[in-house]
Amino acid sequence: MIDITYPLDEHLLIYPGDPVYKAEWFLSMDKGDSCNVTNLTLGCHTGTHVDAPLHFLQGGKSLDEMDLDRLNGPVRVIEYFPETPGDISEAFLKKCHIQPGERVIFKTQNSCRFAGKNLLEDYVAFDLSGARYLAQLGVACLGIDYLTIEPKGSDGSVHREILGAGIPVVETLDLRKVSGGGYEMVCLPLRLSGREASPVRALLKPLDMAPGAAHKDKV
């Protein structure tokens, strides 16, 4: 299994303006307590996490109402390394022959440049045409290797397109050791009642390439 979850620690970059991550000993054996107990403070979008529709849609499904089958099962990692920098568009996605109900996550130049620590001014996200195409196609879930699927300066329209179609979004994936192709994905959020997001532990297991199996797409 390949762990595509960034470790939660004080070095992990948090989305600007989100709650700060903090872990401290509530009980400590070093201080004479009978056991170690940690007090953890963090936002629901800290580190590798999944967004439910409630994140951008008033009255949308909350995290505990999501179908976990959308996040678990066969998934395709699609590599996006265009010669000309730009966000992921409908034109590119049409070349990938994505099927309705397919789970897809995207590896971009973000992976090596972000590394969980670096805020990127020119990160790769999805443009509105790409978001609309995936929403209309009805993919099961969508993932990316940065803090957000939303382009810089956007008003949230990309999230609203995707989440409005009931598609959960997995962000801040660590895809540095992953190549394009087919995998089995395990991605489990905390069972937080009535909330819009949760940190996840996400894992990939490579699948044997076979006729009809997920395949690589790269530009």
Outline the structure in words.
- The chain has 219 residues and is α/β, with parallel strands linked by helices.
- Helix content is 13%, strand content 25%.
- It is built from four helices and ten strands.
- α3 runs parallel beside α4.
- The model is unreliable at 209-219 (pLDDT under 50).
Bin the helical content.
Answer: 10-25%
Poorly predicted regions are 209-219
Order of helices and strands: EEEEEHEHHEHEEE
Decide which structural class fits the backbone.
alpha/beta
In spatial order, strands of the major sheet run 4-8-7-6-5-9-10
Distance between the termini: 26 Å
The average pLDDT value, as a whole number, equals: 94
What fraction strand? 15-25%
Radius of gyration: 18 Å
Record field, number of beta strands: 10
Number of contiguous helices: 4
Largest sheet: 7 strands, mixed, barrel
Short description, anyone?
With 219 residues, the protein is an alpha/beta fold.
